[in-house]
Design a protein that fits this description.
By secondary structure, this protein is mainly α. The protein has two domains: about 40 residues; about 100 residues, Orthogonal Bundle (Cytochrome Bc1 Complex, Chain D, domain 2), CATH 1.10.760.10. The chain is built from eight helices and no strands. The protein starts with a helix and ends with a helix. The protein binds heme C. Heme C (HEC) binds next to helix 5 and helix 7.
């Protein structure tokens, strides 16, 4: 009799430990997911509120027209996706990274892999921009947000 009740107690302790562990694993998985989405989705209030640098945006417009316009329109799909308001959904950090490390990102970023499929497997070629040119193009895209 005594041994049965201690077995029950041991079982109960085991069950609680197991449940505790499962809940813990689930919450950390949820946290991981949350962090992933923070990385790609726009979170920085800063870029939203900072004023447009008109000179930089103008420089970016020139770069956009010579290097991006063949494949991207602002409002409709061409070879690539429309780019108006892309600055609302993706962070400046992410966009800069894509423009500066295009091929590398295409291999590693799950979101881009999906996009490439959507765009018939066409890989956007690296446009060879430097950091300043990338930030100018992004500033231009910010300036045409609606
Ligand atoms: C030869 C055509 C071509 C040129 C030139 C080009 N792109 Fe692209 N771009 C694409 C295609 C196709 C995609 C979608 C598939 C991919 O990313 O490879 C894309 C995707 C993108 C994305 C990702 C959008 C998203 O939702 O994640 C951004 C941002 C972008 N291009 C910006 C630019 C900018 C800025 C330039 C000019 C500096 C440029 N592209 C030049 C074809 C091009």
């Amino acid at each position: 009799m005594k041994s049965t009740s201690s077995l029950i107690i041991i079982f109960a302790i085991g069950l609680f430990a197991f449940l505790g562990l499962t809940v813990n694993v689930q919450t950390s998985a949820a946290k991981g997911l949350l962090q992933d989405s923070v990385k790609t989705e726009k979170k920085e209030v800063k870029t939203e509120t900072t004023e447009i640098d008109k000179k930089l945006a103008n420089e970016g417009k020139g770069i956009f027209n010579s290097k991006c316009f063949a494949c991207h329109k602002l409002d409709s799909r061409l070879v690539g996706p429309p780019l108006r308001n892309i600055t609302k959904t993706l962070t400046q950090e992410y966009l800069t990274k894509y423009l500066l490390h295009t091929a590398e990102m295409q291999k590693t970023d799950p979101k881009l892999k999906k996009l490439i499929k959507e765009y018939n497997g066409i890989l956007m070629p690296d446009q060879g921009l430097n950091k300043k040119q990338a930030s100018a193009v992004i500033e231009y895209l910010r300036s045409v947000e609606k």
